[in-house]
Write the structure tokens for this entry.
Amino acid sequence: MIPLPAGEVIRTKLVRLLYFVGTGAVCAVGINKWKEIERKSMIQKQQQLNDVVQKSS
């Protein structure tokens, strides 16, 4: 391993930490967006089913 000055080591670790946190945030946003899309899809399907049931009554 190449020896680095103390400031470089801290900077490198900080950049890694920020990348890690940023990646986690992006993943969390993506998961929440996917859940929202799935929820809206289920609501839409339920409304369509209710419309069909009401028309047949």
Observations:
- The chain has a mean pLDDT of 91.
- The helical segments are 6-56.
- The first helix runs from residue 6 to 56.
- Residues 32 and 53 are 32 Å apart (CA to CA).
